Amino acid sequence: MTARWALLGLFGLVAAGCQSPPEPFRPLPPPDPYLLHRLRVDQSNGSEDRSPVSILGGGEETASKAEQAEDPGNGSDSEVPSPLGNELQLDHVLRSVESNFPLILAALEEVEIAAGQVQSASGAFDTKLFSKNFFELDGFYQTEEFGFGVEQPTTLYGTRFEAGYRLGQGDFADYDGKKKTNEGGEFRLGAMLPLLRGGTIDPQRVAVWQARLQEEAAWPKVLKARLSATQKAAASYWKWVAEGAKRGIAERLLRLARERQEQVRVGVEEGQLAELSLVENRRLIVDREAILAKADRALQEAALTLSLFWRDEAGQPIVAGIPSLPEQFPKPRDPEEILIPNDVQVALTHRPELRAIEVALSQVGLDRDLARNERLAQLDVGVFGSQDVGNEVNDPDDKGPFEVALGVQFQLPLQRRKARGKERQALAKIDKLEFELRYARDLAVAEVRDVVSALNQSWVRVTQAEENVQLAGRLEEAERVQLSLGESDLFRVNVREQQAAVAGSRLIEVLSEYFRSLTDYRAALGLPYDEVLSPDSPLNRR
User: Fold this and answer.
1) CATH assignment of the domain containing 536
2) Residue 161: phi, psi to the nearest 5?
3) Tell me: the pLDDT tens digits for 13-37?
4) DSSP-derived pairing of the beta strands 186-194 and 143-153
5) Which 8-state DSSP code applies to residue 311?
């Protein structure tokens, strides 16, 4: 009866001292749909919501994109129109990035790697099957011993359970008498319980908990890859759109000069213009042809950069051609309609690098707790019960119906330098990570404020640039009318056309800067483009 109470007492200690693993780390919060919608770039607005600057130069004098596509000088043979429609929009590119961009797919493999680490670390608690057999074939004593059993490590306060069966037959020496069993063999059950070191925490449990944290830390890496990829993709897209707009301006200037050549020739024949006017206009044509060639190269370069992000379903890059260019920039919105209240707090909540450091702090905290536990003495207590079955083999029988053994194991390194050194390392790592977290928070706040400033300034400059384009256009048209009346000359007309072109280029640059700032603002807040995720995106497995 006493033996049975000893076993029950051991199991009671296990249940009372059981420590559950740490709570799962707080996952990254899903982005608020309201915030995502507020930051969305709408490229499907009607003409009344468009910017007054056309991508291809604007006005009735602009050639159609179909005519441009027939011109072999407008792009390389590898350029193809957008398969999603006549215009390639930002959402199309971002959807492609989320589904097919290699670096995002590579980051997703970090999640699978971490899941494999969890599975591997959990192997420390696998059930172990063992067998022990010994045969003494020749000698004074001839014996046979068979044995097998299972051992089960657990997370229950570090307790290890063991059960097995043993059969010992033959002639045993008196001092080996316990090896002999009844004819039916001996069944054995026991448990080992660490009272101090390895009780609340041990290396095996820490390995599992840290692997789970590493799995959680993989998702901030995925988000960081998404933010970086979509930010670069958006910047490449607006660069491509801007270069297409500048090319449209260069093409418009060339077309004006070519169309004016016949008008100048008639003016020379009628004596209204000097003969050198033909040479001057021809010089303008040659000069503007060179400018258009340079614009073609810039557009092709931008398209190639965009192709790193704009991919087909097989993941192959697509070089977008001129027919895919949007007709106009989306109309920019007042930053008051875009900026998010408490955006700094949003950034501190969603930025993946902050979450990664927080996970690392949790992991190092486990190292610290383990090191402190390893400074304790090893004091393990074990209780084992055994029961023989079958006919008796000794006369008189010296085996009781039920046997219980109690064991105590103690060990303590006096200096405990290993554990103290580990604790010292862990405390230093915690301080290091806390300093890094502080700086990362400061950096995130500074980036948000800087991008807000850039967005506000670009909005002001957009208004100024739009007015400049309108004024330059009016002067250009007035000068052209003066030329038709014989009250101006080619030099003054060329100056007005160049001023209008410069004004248009500046507006294009400001618009591009505005939309890049909007993308940078979104990335600074740590908000991905979840609203453009395609249904088959691998990111939906989260």
Assistant:
1) 1.20.1600.10
2) -100, 150
3) 444 444 445 554 556 667 777 777 7
4) unpaired
5) B
What CA–CA distance (Å, rounded) separates 342 from 75?
46
Classified as helix, coil or strand, 386 is strand
| pLDDT value of residue 290 | 95
* Residue 275, C-beta contacts closer than 8 angstroms, at least 6 positions apart: 268
What does the pLDDT look like over 40-65, one tens digit per residue?
776 654 334 444 444 444 444 444 44
What's the CA dihedral at 224, 229, 231, 237 to 10 degrees?
-170
Distances in Å between the Cα of 330 and the Cα atoms of 43, 51, 289, 327, 463 are 5, 6, 29, 9, 14
* Alpha carbons 465 and 376: distance in angstroms, whole number: 73
Q: For 286-307, what is the mean pLDDT? A: 94
Report how far Cα 155 is from the mean position of its chain's Cα atoms: 33
Closest CA to 238 of 538, 533, 527, 514: 514
* Most distant CA atoms of the chain, gap in Å: 145
Is residue 270 predicted with pLDDT exceeding 80? no
Question: In degrees rounded to 5, what are phi and psi of residue 272?
Answer: -80, -25
> Can the peptide bond before residue 396 be classed as cis, meaning omega within 30 degrees of 0?
yes
Angle (CA) 517-519-524 rounded to 5° is: 90
Residue 328 DSSP one-character state = B
Q: How far apart are CA 36 and CA 528, in angstroms?
A: 8
By C-alpha distance, which of 541, 466, 506, 527 is closest to 231? 527
| N-to-C CA span, the chain | 55
Domain extent, residue 467, equals 1-542
Number of domains within the chain:
1
Q: Which residue has the tokens 């095996």?
A: 204
Give the whole-angstrom CA distance, residue 254 versus residue 6: 100
Q: What burial letters (b/e) apply to 337-359, b meaning 16+ CB within 10 Å?
A: ebbbeebbebbbebbbbbbbbbb
How big is the CA angle at 437 (ends 435 and 440), to the nearest 5 degrees?
A: 110
Distance between CA atoms of 95 and 531, rounded to whole angstroms?
Answer: 9
Distance separating alpha carbons of residues 57 and 143, to the nearest angstrom? 102
Name the residue type at position 406. L
Q: What is the pLDDT of residues 348-396, one digit of tens each?
A: 988 999 999 999 999 999 999 999 998 888 888 888 888 878 777 665 5
Distance CA 542, CA 539 (A): 6
